[in-house]
Amino acid sequence: MPGPKGPGIFTAFLGWWGRYPATQFVVLIGLLAIFWVMGSNTIETMHRLGITPGFGFLHQCANFAIGESLIAYAPSDTFARAVLAGLLNTIAIAISGCVLATVLGVSLGIARLSGNFLLAGLVRWYVEVVRNTPLLLQLFFWSAVTHAFPAPRQAINPFGVVY
Predict the structure, then answer these.
(1) Coil, strand or helix at 120
(2) What pLDDT shows up at residue 162?
(3) Which residues have a Cβ under 8 Å from the Cβ of 61 and sit 6 or more positions away?
(4) Cα separations (Å) of 118 from 73, 99, 114, 115, 125?
(5) Which of 27, 40, 121, 162 has its CA 20 to 30 A from that of 80?
(6) Burial of 104 per CB tally in 10 Å (0-12, 13-18, 19+)
(7) Residue 78: φ, ψ to 5°
(8) What is the largest CA-CA distance in the chain?
(9) Cα three-residue angle 43-49-36, rounded to 5 degrees
(10) What is the rounded CA–CA span in Å between residue 145 and residue 138?
(11) pLDDT of residue 157
(12) Rounded-to-integer distance, Cα 130 and Cα 123, Å
């Protein structure tokens, strides 16, 4: 039966460090040394460039606009307010995406199980195409399709009432 042979500090130590504790210790010290060198180099470079590390920038004026926001935001607000607006926008989009995906999934699942041969076949075809195509390929495809459209001012304007 594998595992410690009995109680004691040494068996607990071997259980924690493994069969070769000296090797584990040397690797741990090596990794700590690498992180220390990288961190000290980063801090030294930041001081040389006059960059102060930390979160003090959150209280500075952001000077950029956010198009859509759930809270009132102006370019004269702080970076902290911009981060909050971005976080709330992300949460809102995530929740609406989950609701939309659930509604679409349930609707397509019910349509796939329907007795209508045409509807079930179309949904089966849609699911097979979308699920068997890599997401990156779908993104490239839709990006190419949207870039192929004309600019808004050059778009088709039927009867002069659409745009």
Answers:
(1) helix
(2) 65
(3) 75, 76, 77, 78
(4) 49, 27, 10, 9, 10
(5) 40
(6) exposed
(7) -80, 165
(8) 89
(9) 15
(10) 10
(11) 75
(12) 10
